[in-house]
Amino acid sequence: MSAARGLVRRVRRAMALLEVMIAISILAMMGAFTFTAVAGVVEARDLLESQSKVDLSARVALDLIRRQLELAWLTKHRDNLTAYKTVFVARDGDPDLIWFSTLAHQRLYADSRESDQTEITFWTEDDPTQDDAYVLLQREAQRIDGEPDKDGIIQPIAFGVKRFELRFLNGQKNEWVKEWDTEASDTPQQLPRAVQVVLTLLAPDPEDPEDTEERIYVTTVNLVYADPIVPKQPDDEEEP
Fold first, then answer.
1. What is the rounded CA–CA span in Å between residue 81 and residue 28?
2. pLDDT at residue 102, as a whole number
3. Is residue 54 part of a domain?
4. Residue 65 to residue 219: CA distance in whole angstroms
5. Residue 182 falls within a domain, yes or no?
6. I need a labelling partner for 132 at 20 to 30 A (CA). Which of 74, 103, 173, 195 fits?
């Protein structure tokens, strides 16, 4: 009887050990599935967060550009151009470059020697944090002088820029052009009626987080102080 009881106890212990091993195996499998699911959720969250940051960066940059361009202006007092000069100049490139005078400056300190007049430049340089990309920079000079494309405070407004392209609506000819120069013979002291801004930023690729995709953002800005569009006149009908 004692031998049988010992055998039963050993069998029970073996069964208990087997149940414990099975339970551990099940828990391990559940843990592996849970880890995989959580890792996928975290990866998706990080991807969406990175894309949201790119979208936010584009919106902030375009809002800034829109505000500065919207109030672009040219002075009618041109007696002393060596000390006070307003221009609107844009060069077609890869990417583009633009500098102009505007009334969009915001004075931050009371009694400072500043007004709403300012000089702005937007251009790009190589992005030190990302290959084959640019940094979009802004230069702002708080006071207008005789050198509208120099001096002032420089700050980056967008990283990972792949494309920065501008087009300008000629209100006199009612057509879009790629360059503008208020000192040129065809557009003397004349602002474009509108400016189209195309900003392309690099963002993580949803199908391959190690790769990037191009996200395109476009806005069109109407210039407040530009001359109105001249409607095209129909051709005179020939008399029979």
1. 79
2. 93
3. no
4. 10
5. yes
6. 195
Tens digit of pLDDT for each residue in 63-91?
999 999 999 999 876 665 556 788 999 99
Closest CA to 75 of 119, 114, 108: 119
108 in a domain, yes or no? yes
Instruction: Determine, yes or no, domain membership for 122.
Output: yes
Q: List pLDDT tens digits, range 89-134.
A: 999 998 999 999 999 887 766 666 667 889 999 999 999 988 889 9
- Based on the structure, what is the number of domains in the chain? 1
